[in-house]
Structures are given as C-alpha cells and as structure tokens.
Amino acid sequence: MYDFLKCKTLRISASPHLCVSASLRLCDSKNRIFANKITLMIRKAQQHDIPRILDLLSQVNDVHAEGRPDFFVKGKRKYEEDDLKKILVDDSTPVFVCEEDDDVKGYAFCVMQDLSNCSNLRPDKSLYIDDICVDEKYRRHGVGKKLYDFVLQYAKNENCFNVTLNVWDKNPDAKAFYESMGMAVQKVCIEVVL
Predict the structure, then answer these.
(1) Least enclosed by CB within 10 Å: which of 15, 142, 149, 160?
(2) What is the residue extent of each domain of the chain?
(3) CA geometry: angle at 70 spanning 79 and 73, to 5°?
(4) In 163-191, which positions are buried (b, 16+ CB within 10 angstroms) versus exposed (e)?
(5) DSSP code of 28?
(6) Mean per-residue pLDDT, 116-133
(7) Strand 103-114 relative to strand 40-44, pairing
(8) What torsion do the CA atoms of 42, 44, 47, 48 make, to the nearest 10 degrees?
(9) What value does the mean pLDDT take over residues 107-125?
C-alpha cells in the first residue's frame, strides 16, 4: 500500500502556455520510493477532453444528489456534450483540466464576470468558480489544490478583484477544502422548501 501523505514535492513549474506541472517522489509506508515522477499538468480544456469531463460531471452531480436527493437527480449531470462544446470555445468561461499522462484527474469550470455594468459596485472583474471536481480515485492527493491554486493565479493574471464560488451545505468536505484554501463566507444563500 502506498502512502500518499508521505509524498514530497520536488518541483513545480509554470509555463506561459497556461500549464502547471508538478513532479513528486512517492513513497510507500516504509518510505521506499516506488515512483520518482508523476507529472500533473493543468491546461485549458479542449474538445477531446469532453468524454472525460462528462464522466466527472456525473461524479460531482452524484455527490450533490446524495446530499440533496430532493433537489438533484442521481445519474444526471449539469452540462451535456453540446453545452460543453459551447463553453470550451467561450473566453468568458474558461475550463481547466488537471492531467497526468493524458488522463484527466479533475477540472475547474470558471466564469469571468464583468462588474462594470453594476452601478453600485466597483467596476472590477471577478472570477466565479462554477465547479471544481476531482475524480473520486484521486481525491486527497493534491489535485484539487493544484487546480484551485492555478485558478487563483489565472484570476490574478486577469486582474480580477476576487474569486468566488458556491458550496452546498450538504457537502462538508468541499466546504472544508475551500476554507483550508483561505476562502471565507461572502454571503449566505438560504431557502425554504415548499
């Protein structure tokens, strides 16, 4: 059994082409090296990623359906193939994937929001994270953190004022993750079910 908690990061580099890679030395529970390098790369999603993104969209929907079966339909997803084709070519909705050896481990859907038309707000840009998902087999291995850090840097490079997202109350793992990344409550959405 390999102990991913004993991983040591050797190198993280960013290229000007919106890619981030990380090399890791992975050890088993007796600290024996079993892999010297795993390269995780983050890049903009492309059309050929759509089948894998659809799989991940199903996973994240099922997590939500477990927490809110009254609201989400298990086995469905937020977007379908035709939706993704449009999203991926729209500069205002960047989607990033984290991959290793051409295998997509997770994604981040983002929406660039222009607040300049809101007369009561500063004329800033904001980056909204519509969705982050990491394949259930790779959760707690640093993929989500790498995606989040990349999105944060992307927002800084785009001169955004802030990064926002919504997290479902019935998804405490996601809430804890975002809080550990330094996010704080901006506003609260409350409901009454009729």
Answers:
(1) 15
(2) 42-180
(3) 30
(4) bbbebeeebeebeebbeeeebeeeeeeee
(5) B
(6) 91
(7) unpaired
(8) -20
(9) 91
Give the H or E element holding residue 97. Answer: strand 95-100
The answer to whether 53 and 45 are in contact (CB under 8 A) is yes
Confidence of residue 75 (pLDDT cuts 50, 70, 90): very high
75 DSSP assignment: T
| Number of CB atoms found within 10 A of residue 71's CB | 12
Burial of 115 (0-12, 13-18, 19+ CB in 10 A): middle
Place of tokens 């890049």: 43
Burial environment of residue 24 by CB neighbours within 10 A (0 to 12, 13 to 18, 19 or more):
buried
First-to-last CA distance in the chain?
A: 49
User: What fold is seen in the domain 42-180?
Assistant: Aminopeptidase (3.40.630)
| pLDDT surpasses 50 at 8 | no
Which pLDDT belongs to residue 102?
A: 87
More confident of the two residues 75 and 40: 75
Q: Inform me whether the pLDDT recorded for 30 exceeds 60.
A: no
